[in-house]
Amino acid sequence: MTQRALFAVATTLLIGSATGCTAYIGGGSTGSSAQPGSGGATATGTPGTPGNPSTPGGGASSSVPTKPGTVDPANPPDPNAAGPMPLRRLTQGEYNNTVRDLLGVTTNPANNFPSDVDLNFIFRRFGDVSTLDASRMQEAAEAIALTVDVTKLAPCTATDATGQTACAQTFVTSFGLHAYRRPLVADETTRLMALYQVGRTTLTLDYPGGIKLLIETMLQAPGFVYRWELGPVTPTLEGTVVHLAPYEVASRLSYFLWQTMPDQALFDAAAAGKLATPQDVEAQARRMMDDPKAHNMMASFFQQWLSLDQVAARPKDATVYPQFNDALKASMNAESLAFIDNVAFQGDGALSTFLTANFSFVDQTLAPVYGVTGASATAAKLSLNPAQRAGLLTQSAFLTVTGATDGSNPVKRGRKVYERLLCGVLPPPPPNVPPAAPASAGGTTRMTHNCAPRLAIPSWIRSGSPSRITTASASTAPPTTAYPSMQPAPSRSMA
Asked: pLDDT tens digits for 243-277?
């Protein structure tokens, strides 16, 4: 058996006993959220039952969309609860950021994992651990462990086996705290040290090899892969609500504001019990918002919320948009990032500014799209025509991802606004809705989308109530008169 195979066997023996109480590994693809099993808090638990991403926490879903925020009078929520706590895996971005801050790895290994895009949810999240997921995580852990400089991460001057074992014990305690975002429990430490001994004896590894085996293993352990900062211990209850432990608060803060693991200041605050009051949490949050990592988090939030990160993947008809190339896509992305950062951290941070500002950050590649002059090679703040532009929803990235390949698509843009800003839920269109005329038919965008018979606006839209959206209510009105003719199409811009 090769050394890599022996590594895999040893790692599997350790991790396999722990995954039973956290999730399960299956052969299917990702797509639904795994929930913790009902087994005990130790390694004897049973695999969890996969949940439905549209109903986190196992709640039932309805085929008819309902108004967001609707409360069942017969089952009101606990006003003191923070909501269900599903067992979440680190997303690709969180994994990359965490190994960067934990081990200095900047190669973004999670980019090779299966996609964490959930079509049933706005933001990125992983589902069950498929066989492919497990394989890619193992490959990433192996590659990362090979690059570690043990002399810096786990220095040890001892030359005898007993002394080196003591060094390994110290490493497991200190590194485990940071990797699992909480102190290890005794059973975890015991199993890790048992693995270290297997590495030194059965695998005939030296001290650095034993440490690398531990790192490889811990990067695949549930404590690292999942946001499970409570660990296999009995939770503290306040009535029927689980009280968040200090390390859970620290981790929630760091992944919410930084999309990565806590820094040393947060670990120290958790250890000292300085995350127990609202004042403690606010002080840490204000400190964290001054860190550059908060800027990356803010950009990521807007990119996922409005799908701005999909610009590079959007195809466009080259005959209609000959200027749409990789350089223009990069300029669009740079514009979004610069605008979001400016409003959030240099401006007033108001939502109204995000949605109504008549300025943006334009370079000379993007300038022709806006019809402005004076742009340089790098994105700089420029005023835009307020009659045409107002905030993110009229900027190039949003219009690109919500447009068609050969023109504008006000239907897609309207749906995005309705669902992402107004929290509405739209059902699939009824079968009698006619398609819009193709852009090649000519005419303005308004004419293109009105040249077919139009449906009357249902009463639930006029009333602004999404709770009454049904297929029937959207298809009961007779068509009205179509535009009798269309003029030749004007030249089209990217917007």
From this structure: 888 999 999 999 999 999 999 999 999 999 999 99
Contact 260, 178 (CB under 8 A): no
**Cα–Cα distance measured from residue 106 to residue 90, given in angstroms and rounded to the nearest whole number:** 16
Rounded to whole angstroms, the Cα distance separating 29 from 38 reads 23
Which residue type, as a one-letter code, is found at position 80?
N
More confident residue, 480 or 419: 419
104 shares a domain with 246: no
Q: Which domain holds residue 451?
A: 430-495
387 assigned to some structural domain? no
Q: What's the mean per-residue pLDDT of the chain?
A: 79
pLDDT for 443:
66
pTM of the model: 0.74
- What is the pLDDT at residue 81? 64
Between the alpha carbon of residue 474 and those of residues 30, 465, 468, the distances in Å are 34, 13, 10
Same domain, 142 and 250: no
Q: How many angstroms separate the CA atoms of 207 and 190, rounded?
A: 18
Do 209 and 278 lie in one domain? The reply is no
Number of structural domains found in the chain: 3
pLDDT band at 231 (very low <50, low <70, confident <90, very high): low
Are 284 and 243 contained in the same domain?
yes
Contact predicate 134/150, CB 8 Å: no
